[in-house]
Amino acid sequence: MPDNAVAAKSTPADERRKRRTALIGGSLGNLVEWYDWFVYASFAIYFADSFFPGDNPTTQLMNTAGIFAVGFLMRPVGGWILGRAADRHGRKSALTLTVTMMSVAALLIAVAPTYGQAGYFGALVLLLARLLQGLSIGGEYAASATYLTEASAPGRRGLGSSFQYVSMTCGQLLGLGILITLQHTLTTAQLESWGWRIPFVFGALFAGVVFWLRRRLQETDAFTQELSADGGHAGVHDDSRRGTLKALWQHRRQAGLVMALTLGGTVAYYTYTTYLTKYLVGSAGMAKTTATLVSFTALILFAVLQPFAGMLSDRIGRRPLLITFAVGCTVGTYPIMTALGSASSYWSALGLSLLALVIVTGYTSINAAVKAELFPTRVRALGVALPYAIANALFGGTAEYVALWFKNGGHEKMFFWYVSGCALISLVTYVLMPDTRDATLSPAEAEAGHAEDPEPRAAAGAEAAR
């Protein structure tokens, strides 16, 4: 039973302290998880030829991008297994398990033998590590989205959940920061020979520290109230009630919404983050160090924007931000990417990258809250995890590979239309779906009267009707 399942009444100051601790603990763990996930993409330009021999750099990158995409194929499996665990045994236990898996995966990549040492066995180790990372991230996204949303005050869930992408971006920034440092301290030959292993060693060490931190997190009130309602026996109550596919099927409309609203956001996010550096190097002809610095600077400002957009959604609702993102991405992707392809300086590339990331902020800052607010507590983590992971496996994880495939075929600009089309599908979803800002996440919130409009409270209605 979670350690705070039976808690004495706390003062407002205690509640604020508890929420801050949850925010810090959940965010730091998420940072390390996504550092390990993204550092693979950041360093791929240096280790691609270590595992895949040949004379065509684009083909080598396509092979490493293919393994990057395979990691996404495991995310639905991880979302199902760890989402179920989070709904049945608690968000804290799932968060602890995900970071353990990520640590092992980082170690595997750090010690993987090259093609020259063991042939394609090294690529197999790389593949196995990415599969394990996919399992971990598949559960991490949902567990952290659910934890950060449930741990936030009802009127500040947009702000609280925005720290998911703050920490995700900071994880990527940490990886890029290490990359920039190594670029200025090691030669290109050293980076391609052994220097690329360093960030994966750091990732394993960081994950060990976060494991210790997450063991000390408190469970969310929403989960402990659900556990109490089920008699206080995690994982023993009727399987049709918590964290099962049968329970999720009862909320299949919300699961469909999660997939549709994720589609445009995940493609745009991976286009302007993980693929951006490769695009600036391979298409704009920019130096690797300059392209990396562009991405690093743009992501710093992107991370700063997230809480402000989250706070705005707490005031005006979630849908206005989502619609703004989708409209901007639908009509803006082609001209922005075309201009980036001919960017000749750091400042021009930075300005265009920032414009794109400002648009993407309308999705990234609040998508965690929106998804969590669609489901009742007993199936919230699984409801966020599985449909989101499926959408990411089909579209987010393949975005970079699709872009390189179009480039290799001589039709690079077709990818820009692909991104716009995905955003257009999400735009239709945002226009038709209800706003979730006023949804209640637990019976206690409903009793306290935090929400007034019953229409957008699908989650609250389902909670009360069980």
- Coarse morphology: globular
Which residues sit in consecutive blocks of at least 5 with pLDDT less than 50? 1-8, 450-466
Order of helices and strands: HHHHHHHHHHHHHHHHHHHHHH
Strand content bin = under 5%
Mean pLDDT: 84
Biggest pleated-sheet summary: none
**Intertermini distance:** 22 Å
Quaternary organization: single chain
Rg estimate, integer Å: 21 Å
How many DSSP-defined strands? Answer: 0
Residue share in helix: over 70%
* Class of secondary structure makeup: mainly alpha
How many helices does DSSP assign? 22
A few lines on this structure:
This protein has 466 residues and is mainly α.
Q: What do these coordinates show?
A:
With 466 residues, the protein is an all-alpha fold. The chain starts with 11 loop residues before the first helix and ends with a helix. It has helices spanning 12-51, 57-73, 75-89, 91-111, 115-118, 121-150, 157-185, 188-193, 198-214, 221-229, 245-249, 252-272, 274-282, 288-316, 319-341, 346-364, 367-372, 380-396, 399-408, 414-432, 443-448, 458-465. It is 77% helix and 0% strand.
